[in-house]
Write a structure and sequence with these properties.
Strands 1, 2, 5, 6, 7, 8, 9, 10, 18, 19 and 20 form an 11-stranded mixed β-sheet that branches. The protein has a 4-stranded antiparallel β-sheet with strand order 12-13-15-14. It contains 17 helices and 20 strands. The radius of gyration is 24 Å and the shape is globular. Helix 4 runs parallel beside helix 7 and helix 12 (308-323) crosses helix 14. The chain is α/β, with parallel strands linked by helices. Helix 7 links the parallel strand 6 and strand 7.
């Protein structure tokens, strides 16, 4: 009897341990480029019951999410989601930057060391300076957990995959094929071949978003993601962006079409893995509102044009008057200026002193709201506003001087077509958790996208990415 009692206690303890160690079989991270919370809710009456409306109704919805840095862009945003930290730490400050060695503009994932697959452009996640949630999952499972990234966008797909993923794939803009990079291996996973075969057989492959859903279906069904008790991670990137300034009717169509794809995706997850065994999160990679100068004028909004080329020319003339001949400003990109540090050394000029001279001069320009130098940002943050700018700065990849122009002012650059109107107004978007261990709830308190990665790590029972200084987990 005692032995039977002991066996019962042992079985109960084993059962409790098994339950305590239970983790989701699958994590699906959905990021949507250019998603706006107001549009998401305004068009809800047109959604079906099984897509976006299902997530908003049955999920844990944080309605007031934000990114903890200024100048939000898709690359910095998507990297923050998977690393749980800001560009100051993870290194991805923007979609593109100036290579200090060549003075050429390059994207944040360009890498000639790893050739492309079905694309002429090489790429890697080498510029991500910390680990991602996918990297930590690989470490925790000794490489057994699958990590894939599938999306419409090359930058987001690679950055969401991280360093140790099995594969990252995106739709190449030049040839329309599914592309990848040999950074993740010499060839695509076996389940990509039947995906490409099916698409060749179709008379209409559908929209890019539809192709992402189709690829996700092959990944889950043929690729065996979520098939066992080892947690797998699939990052999916959709987009509701427009290449031109579209009217509200076209924007509405994009959101309704996205809703249909989310419904199809949830159905695939339900059939192949089970929603209760899958942890799903959805958020936006930010929204960039860049109306043309003509549009701004037509609505009688206060505006003016700020020419970066003229600014650079005048600033260099000023420095020549102070220190003699030379091209002190090596180059510029968007609102960032890059100084020629070698020239300053040759002239025995102190870098911080020249930065201070530039700062004083730039404040005299009409349209300049604030000037941030690298030394000012590196010395520390003394206010919430400066802290947000510092969070979006990285010494390796940012310019030496950042110019912030007044809202409504247009930033004109002769090296690029058109003028971009600076409109830094806050645009709300949600973070939605759905499926494994999440109950339906609406939360209106502000929440940061930094919290996504540690939240996923907590539920998957793995270590959080190594760039996170302090965990602030919302569950």
């Amino acid at each position: 009897m005692k032995r039977l009692f002991s066996l019962c206690i042992y079985a109960a303890l084993c059962s409790s341990v098994a339950m305590a160690q239970e983790t989701p079989r699958l994590v699906v991270g959905i990021t949507i480029d250019q998603l706006r919370g107001d549009y998401l809710e305004s068009f809800a009456a047109l959604y079906g019951e099984d897509g976006l409306k299902r997530l908003m109704r049955d999920g844990l919805v944080y309605r007031n999410a934000k990114y903890p840095f200024r100048h939000i862009n898709k690359s910095a945003a998507s990297t923050t989601v998977v690393t749980g930290t800001v560009p100051y730490t993870h290194g991805i400050v923007s979609d593109e930057w100036v290579n200090r060695k060549t003075l050429q503009t390059e994207t944040c994932i360009d890498d000639k060391n790893f050739s492309g697959v079905n694309t002429r452009m090489g790429a890697s996640a080498a510029n991500v300076l910390v680990s991602t949630i996918g990297d930590e999952l690989k470490i925790a499972t000794e490489g057994k957990g699958f990590v894939y990234s599938i999306g419409t966008d090359r930058l987001i797909s690679v950055l969401s995959a991280g360093h140790a993923a099995d594969w990252a794939m995106w739709i190449d803009k030049e040839n329309g094929r599914w592309a990848g990079t040999k950074y993740y291996g010499d060839r695509a996973p076996y389940w990509v071949n039947p995906l490409e075969y099916e698409e060749r057989m179709l008379s209409d492959r559908g929209s890019n978003n539809a192709r992402v859903t189709r690829a996700a279906r092959f990944c889950l069904t043929s690729g065996a993601c979520g098939a066992d008790h080892i947690t797998d991670f699939v990052a999916l990137n959709y987009s509701v962006a427009e290449t031109t300034n579209a009217g509200i009717d076209r924007i509405r169509e994009n959101y309704v079409a996205l809703d249909m794809e989310i419904a199809k995706l949830l159905e695939v997850i339900e059939r192949s893995v089970g929603i209760d065994k899958t942890l799903i999160y959805l958020t936006s990679t930010g929204y960039e509102d860049a109306p043309t100068l003509l549009q701004t004028i037509s609505y009688k909004l206060p505006t003016q044009e700020f020419s970066m080329n003229r600014c650079v020319a005048l600033l260099n003339m000023y420095l020549v008057a102070l220190h003699g001949k030379g091209n002190y400003i090596e180059t510029h990109l968007d609102n960032q200026l890059y100084l020629d540090k070698k020239l300053l050394e040759q002239k025995h000029l102190k870098f911080s002193d020249v930065l201070h001279e530039c700062e004083d001069f730039l404040y005299q320009f009409d349209g300049v709201k604030e000037v941030y130098t690298s030394t000012r940002l590196l010395q520390g943050a003394w206010s919430p506003g400066l802290s947000m700018v510092r969070n979006g700065f990285n010494i390796r990849h940012s310019g030496d001087i950042l110019i912030e122009i007044i809202p409504g002012c247009s930033l004109a650059d002769d090296s690029k077509s058109g003028a971009k109107v600076w409109r830094p107004a806050w645009v709300n978007f949600p973070i939605i958790y759905y499926g494994y261990n999440f109950e339906a709830k609406q939360v209106y308190d502000p929440v940061s996208t930094e919290q996504i990665a540690p939240t996923i790590a907590s539920h998957a029972r793995i270590r959080a990415p190594n760039g996170i200084d302090e965990l602030n987990i919302k569950q």
